[in-house]
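General statements about sequence and structure are easier to judge against a single worked case. Part of our work consisted of pairing the sequence of a single chain with a tokenised description of its backbone. The amino acid sequence and the backbone structure tokens for this protein are reproduced below.

***
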Amino acid sequence: MIIGRNEKLALIPLILCLLLWVIPGSANSAAKLPLDPGPSAADSTAVDELVSPSPWKPGSELLAVGFFTAVAIYLLLRVQDRLQDRARQRW
């Protein structure tokens, strides 16, 4: 099976979404903010959330977005090829 230019271009968003789904962001990559120790207990919980945020965990929506984007790009590129073929035939 030969994969053409249109298919390769359409697979890019699907592969990127799949990578984001398999390898989500980690807490180590989050930016660490300078902290000023505060006397309030409510402030300490907010500070704890800033220091070690929970890692982002994508759901199945990300895969659906990647799939539908890939299909839309593929269909648009097919329409573009058809329009170019018609234009060549008229000239």
Notes: The chain has three helices and no strands. The helical segments are 5-22, 41-51, 60-90. The chain has a mean pLDDT of 76.
